[in-house]
């Protein structure tokens, strides 16, 4: 049976598209710059079997408008743009592609750590302006303590490189207990125990009701004076006005941010005006290798489910739907 797959983006990495086309699927794409309303319009007018969701919102109205919809797969791991509650109410599983972009995100995390510690962006700007400014207050990371909040596939990759740099690595992840999955990393049983130790704090957590605004003024103040904050997770987990104040006051040495509370970054952003902030436009997973991994993972998720070969249940964010539909989650 030929399935209709709707990709809420203008394209999909060739390897993922090839998987769908080889299976005889009809693949629909959105035009560049499409809105949530346009997504709903397509879903209301087409007999769509599966959605591969990129960054455009997949609303409750869009999900309800498509009675033929059977499965959704996120092209990535974060699902704040998908109304998971609406999908669950409709009996539709929502899958993600864990690990597909972990290496690329970990590498950008390390890049931001190094760039902020050694003032790379600021020094580059000085040279381009014709000034031979040799700043003497860059930070050496070796010998300092790295704190990782969230210790999944990205955090573990970051930890291994940080250990090789000579950093002392500490981590907190409420989902982990027992020995650390990475030798040499100290696991803590609370965030409050970790923060005072973190000369560099790197965030690797999802956005949800518990993590939104988690790093407010009070928690940022628990970091050692002159610490660095790196965020390649979700911008909304940090209280940005509190972060700006900590950076202005010198309580924080610098921040490296791939994600912001509002994206794209609005004109006149206070973050963009600070010389001790390095910003990248949410490109942690935007390498050819990561895009291919997410595309092939999403394609396998939807085809596996539609063909009766259930994908790995651990990649389903609403597994109660699988139980309700008598799908195995063992």
From TrEMBL:
Residue stretches spanning the membrane: none
Keyword Oxidoreductase applies: yes
Entries under CDD domains matching the protein: PGDH_4 (cd12173)
D-isomer specific 2-hydroxyacid dehydrogenase NAD-binding domain sequence ranges: 110-284
Alphabetical keyword list: NAD, Oxidoreductase
InterPro entries: D-2-hydroxyacid_DH (IPR050857), D-isomer_2_OHA_DH_cat_dom (IPR006139), D-isomer_DH_CS (IPR029753), D-isomer_DH_NAD-bd (IPR006140), NAD(P)-bd_dom_sf (IPR036291)
Domain D-isomer specific 2-hydroxyacid dehydrogenase catalytic: 11-311
Pfam families per the UniProt record, alphabetical: 2-Hacid_dh, 2-Hacid_dh_C
Family: Belongs to the D-isomer specific 2-hydroxyacid dehydrogenase family.
Listed name of the protein: Hydroxyacid dehydrogenase
């Amino acid at each position: 049976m030929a399935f209709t797959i709707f990709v809420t983006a203008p394209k999909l990495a060739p390897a993922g598209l090839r998987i769908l086309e080889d299976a005889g699927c009809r693949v629909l794409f959105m035009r560049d710059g499409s809105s949530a309303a346009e997504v709903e319009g397509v879903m209301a007018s087409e007999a769509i079997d599966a959605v591969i969701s990129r960054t455009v919102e997949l609303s409750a109205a869009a999900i309800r408008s498509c009675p033929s919809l059977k499965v959704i797969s996120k092209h990535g791991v974060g699902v704040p743009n998908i109304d998971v509650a609406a999908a669950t109410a409709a009996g539709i599983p929502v899958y993600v592609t864990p690990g597909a972009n972990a290496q690329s995100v970990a590498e950008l995390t390390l890049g931001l750590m190094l760039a902020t510690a050694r003032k790379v962006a600021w020094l580059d700007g000085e040279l381009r302006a014709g000034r031979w400014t040799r700043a003497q207050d860059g930070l050496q990371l070796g010998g300092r303590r790295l704190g990782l909040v969230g210790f999944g596939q990205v955090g573990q990759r970051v930890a291994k490189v940080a250990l090789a740099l000579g950093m002392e690595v500490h981590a907190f992840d409420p989902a982990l207990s027992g020995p650390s999955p990475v030798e040499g990393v100290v696991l803590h049983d609370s965030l409050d125990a970790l923060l005072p130790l973190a000369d560099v704090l790197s965030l690797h957590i999802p956005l949800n009701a518990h993590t939104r605004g988690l790093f407010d003024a009070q928690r940022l103040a628990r970091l050692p004076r002159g610490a660095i904050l790196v965020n390649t997770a979700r911008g909304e987990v940090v209280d940005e006005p509190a972060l700006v104040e900590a950076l202005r006051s010198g309580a924080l040495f610098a921040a490296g941010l791939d994600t912001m509370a509002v994206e794209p970054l609005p004109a006149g952003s206070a973050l963009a005006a600070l010389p001790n902030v390095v910003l990248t436009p949410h490109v942690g997973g935007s390498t050819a290798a990561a895009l291919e991994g997410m595309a092939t993972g999403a394609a396998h998720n939807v085809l596996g489910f539609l063909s009766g070969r259930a994908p790995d249940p651990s990649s389903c964010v609403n597994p109660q739907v699988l139980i309700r539909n008598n799908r195995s989650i063992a």
